[in-house]
């Protein structure tokens, strides 16, 4: 499965810049990408939920490994935590 990768940056409540990638099927609407990003932020207890193209933008398409495919089939998305996600 090929997936679209959305490079995402959000300022956390403490002021640190949170960086993560949202991976979705290539035909997923950008509104759904934002919805998935908000779900992830809620799980992380981050109050900031305003995602936009300035904070979350398409980066590239890549072939997904099995664990990513499994997550996308179950949840609709997969998150790769990069910086300040914990």
Summed up, what is this model?
28% of the residues lie in helices and 38% in strands. The chain has helices spanning 30-43, 66-75, and strands spanning 2-11, 17-25, 56-63, 78-83.
Q: What's the count of strands?
A: 4
Top-tier CATH class = Alpha Beta
Give the CA-CA distance, first to last residue.
Answer: 29 Å
Q: What's the helical proportion of residues?
A: 25-40%
Structural class by sheet pairing and helices: alpha+beta
Radius of gyration: 12 Å
| Tally of separate domains | 1
Q: Which stretches are low in confidence, meaning pLDDT under 50 for 5 or more residues running?
A: none
Q: What is the helix tally?
A: 2
What would you say the CATH architecture is? Answer: Roll
What report would you give on this structure?
- With 86 residues, this protein is an alpha+beta fold.
- The protein has a single domain, classed as NE1680-like fold (Roll), CATH 3.10.510.
- It is 28% helix and 38% strand.
- It is built from 2 helices and 4 strands; from the N terminus they run ββαβαβ.
- It has helices spanning 30-43, 66-75, and strands at residues 2-11, 17-25, 56-63, 78-83.
- The chain has a 4-stranded antiparallel β-sheet with strand order 3-1-2-4.
- A hairpin with a 5-residue loop joins strand 1 and strand 2.
- The chain starts with a strand and ends with a strand.
- It holds the Pfam family DUF2024.
- It comes from Tenacibaculum todarodis.
Pick out its properties.
86 residues; 28% helix; 38% strand; NE1680-like fold; 4-stranded antiparallel beta sheet; DUF2024
Detail the topology: elements first, then pairings.
Elements: E1 2-11, E2 17-25, H1 30-43, E3 56-63, H2 66-75, E4 78-83
Antiparallel strand pairs: 1-2, 1-3, 2-4
